[in-house]
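The records we work with from here on pair a chain with its fold. Taken together, the tokens spell out the fold as the letters spell out the chain. To see the layout at work, look at the sequence and tokens printed below.
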Amino acid sequence: MAVFRRSSSAGATDSTAQDAPGTNSSTAPAKERSASEAKKGRPTPKRSEAERNRYQSITGGRSSGSRAYSQSNAGRPLTPEEKANAKTRDRNERNRRMDAMKRGEEWALGARDKGAARQLARDYVDAHRRPSEYYMYALLLLFVSIISRNKLIGNYASYLVVALVVIIIVDGYLIRRALRRLIAQRLPGESSRGLTMYAVMRALQIRRMRLPAPRRKPGDEI
């Protein structure tokens, strides 16, 4: 009987020793899960909830109209009618901003066009007929002469390129000198950094394609 008692106690001891590691291993994941949840401050969401939230964030981040709909209808995806309404509002907003930019309204202009000095430069360029204004037409003639493969026309094209470069340099110098004088008179203390290049690039564009649209006609006083 003593033998059986010893074996049973030994078995109990062995079983206790075997159960101890098992108990630790089974409780360890629970502790790890609770620690991760405590670190995030919230339980891990279900997969269906995560996919729904991700779908709503993509739909709501495409435009301002859809963002407004997603905020007012949080918790559900947008309906096709709501998406169509959001697109219509976005299109109307873009058209309104484009019209305001053409008129030169300050709130609709980009960073490159904002400022009183840039407005003065645009008015000065638009109020004068400059040789640089025909630069695009000269480029078109140059392109035609290149594809024609006529030797005589090709020789004249090389002279045309040199003439264009000289005209742009001289006209840019005149624009720079006039703008410095205007800035000193109209906007004393205003920085004219980058203003010459801005005005020259506008002068090179065809008048009807300039943005913002010209406010002055050739010959108008500034």
In short: The CA atoms of residues 142 and 158 lie 9 Å apart.
